[in-house]
Each structure stands twice: as C-alpha cells, then as structure tokens.
Amino acid sequence: NIISCLITLAANTVFLVVYFRTRSLRNPHYFFLMLLAVTDISVGLISQPLLIARKFMEIYSVHDCVLWTAMRASVYYFSGISFLTITLVSIERWFAVCRPIKHRRDVTPKRMAVVAFIVWAVWFIFPVVRFALPKFYRAFGMLVGGIIVVIFVINTRLYLKIQRSVRDGKLRFSGKEQQKNYTKGEVNFKKEGRMARTVALLLVVMVLAYLPTAIGLTYKALRGVNTVYLFVFLPLADTLVLINSSFNPLFYCYRNANIRMAITKCMSSLNTSSVNCDSSFNNQATSKM
Questions:
Q1: What per-residue confidence (pLDDT) applies to 284?
Q2: In 133-233, which ranges are continuous DSSP H helix?
Q3: For residue 88, how many other CB atoms are within 10 A of its CB?
Q4: DSSP labels for 70-100?
Q5: What confidence tens digit (pLDDT) does each residue in 155-185 have?
Q6: End-to-end CA distance of the chain
Q7: Which of 40, 124, 133, 258 has a Cα-to-Cα distance from 16 of 20 to 30 A?
Q8: Tens of pLDDT along 189-214?
Q9: CA-CA-CA-CA torsion for 219, 225, 229, 235, nearest 10 degrees?
C-alpha cells in the first residue's frame, strides 16, 4: 500500500499538471478523466495513508475507532465516486458518438461541472448514512452491492451501443470520407472506437478490483461481521480498491496517444525552461567575473 500510494500521487499529479497546461485536452472526455484523477489523488492523500496507519497500529495491537471510521468512510466515498465517474465518462462518450449534434450543443464545461458536483454531493450521503445508522449496515451492504451491479449493466449497455454506432459508421464511410467528415466537425469513428474500448477496459479492471468489495458487503449483510469478513474479504477488498487508483492514470495514458504527446511536450518544455534558466545564470556569473 505504501508503494501504491506513492505511484497514485505521482501518476495522477502528472496527469493533472498536463491537463491544465494543455488546452487541447480541455474537452468533455478529458474533463471527466481529470475528475477521476482528482478522486484517485484523494485516495492517495486520505484513504491510503489512513489504511497504512491502521495496519501499523494493528501490528502493535493498538486500535482507534475514530481512525478506523475515517478510513472506512473515505474508502466507501472515493471508491464510489470513481465508479460513478467512469459511468459519466461512458455517458459522455455515448453522447459524442450516438448524439454528436446534441453533444456539441449541450455538453458544456459548466453543465459537466454541475453534474459532477451533484454526483459527488449525492454519493456523500451514503457513507454518512452507513456510519450514522450502524444498525442498518446489512441493508447498506445490499444497497451498495445492487448499485454496483446496476452501474455495471448501464456501462455495458452504453459500450455496446457505442460500438454498434462506430461499426455502422465505419461501414457507411470510407477512410477518406471519415477524415473529410471529421474535419467538418463530425464523428471520427476510428478514434471514438478506440476511446470507447479504453473506457470499457477501465471499467472491466475497476469491476475486477471492486468485486471483492461487493462480495464482502453481500457476505456481511447475510452473515454479519466474523473472522472471514475481517481477515479475508476486508483486507483484500481495501487493497484492490486502493491499488486501482494507481492503475487508472497509467492505463489511460498508455492507451491515449494525445495524453502521451501532451506529457512529452510538457516534459520537453520543462527541460527547455530549465536549460534557459541555467544558461542565463551562467551568463550572469560570467559577466560578474
């Protein structure tokens, strides 16, 4: 978890710096990836340090209910936000491919920010209810497990619709016609297909990482808290969920050429500015001599 925490902070910080320094990335698709990076950084700054502190305290047989509650609440909150953000990415991709005119007209930065704020605010209710009403933890576990299943079904249906539209678009237009239409502001089916596959793969990896959490919550709702839940499901679920935050930025940077190019340009610009500063310093030193 310590190594994963460092990777999470470094990788997501690089992506955020590149996002805010590169104007070409400031579009609806990358906006939600930026929100995902913010969520993952929050995991690296809050959830993982709390989990690491909790594990160190367990080694020395020290238990702190406040620390445990804060750690569990942060894991519930940020893991849910990550899942919902991927869903927002899928919805935005569906609009871009299947409803391109409406996407260009209605999907604005202000509206995206409002939607993201509503999602973050509404999901905040769940960890609050979980710890404010501990008697209903079984119902909470079943509810969260059901939400995960529903979100997965929604994302799967959106991905299938996107792929169907991309396939139909490729069959309808040749390569030159696609390029001509793209220059007119229409859909680039090849590019959209790759972006849709990237989002789908992110979702699959996230589902695999969150699967022990869903199984653990269901087990807890049916059997209650016992040694199997505390020493099998809970450690595995926490570790996989938090490691997923370090995997996300590495994966979509690997899959997206635009992000890789933006990172390369930012790194080269930083190197150039560093060289310029060094040369100016040397010139000043030479003039003084």
A1: 46
A2: 137-172, 175-183, 189-223, 227-228
A3: 18
A4: HHHHHHHHHHHHHHHHHHHHHHHHHHHHHSH
A5: 888 888 888 877 776 555 444 444 444 444 4
A6: 52
A7: 124
A8: 667 667 777 777 887 887 788 777 77
A9: 120
